[in-house]
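Question (not urgent): is this output format expected?
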Amino acid sequence: MPHFLFEALAGIFGVTRKRRTYSLLVYLLGLVGLTAVAIAQTGARGFALVAMVLFFAVVATEQVRGARSAVWRAARRALTDKTQSPYRDGRGFPPTAATLWKLANAVNLVRRGQYVEASEYVEEVDRDLLLAEENRLFDAVRAMISIGLGDTKGAAMQASGALPTTCEDFDQVLGRALVSAAWNNPDTLRTLENTWAENGVTTGLRLSMPRLRAIVRVRINASPIDSLESWEAKALADEARAVGDESLAADLESHARQIPYR
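Got this back:
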């Protein structure tokens, strides 16, 4: 069956970007009509035709779902996990599934520091077929490639709309690049902080994005150093040092020493 038909069937079941809320109803009504016509024309053999259409619809849907799962495994699982690394290059799949496999491979290669190889996959990704969160991940991959190839300014621009990606490797590196680039511009930092808050980033300290949001709040005085617990100040001192502000790191460490650990 031609790839565009597989793509259409996957879209009907709501797993592609071009899905429509009414598509499944239309599909089911069409299937009922097809069943009636097939049985009227060929008798019981008409059920075989209907079963074939259903089979191809399920195959098309699972191709996209499998590729999408591969993208997030590549982004979120440890590099030592055997299920993290994609094993298909996208060739021979319908458009959405193919582009998702290419994105999955690009994510995997970037996380392993293979930037040139990753860029080859990036060039073949059709971002018009990606969902919003996948487009953010795509921008993050491009930004990581830029950093890997020495273009930190370009990386900051590419990362501006990418975070958070929920890939810790990307969020830490790109988040620090963004914060470092804006460190001496309070207005830009406030914009970053507001954007991250709107995107659901908390101010906890366990993950990269919350830590970065927390240090930005300290920098713009939305969260004064005096209000921090000892352990918080110690954690944020490391983050301040990572974005290049040794003075703030020293102030945070000094504050951590002055108050008892709780």
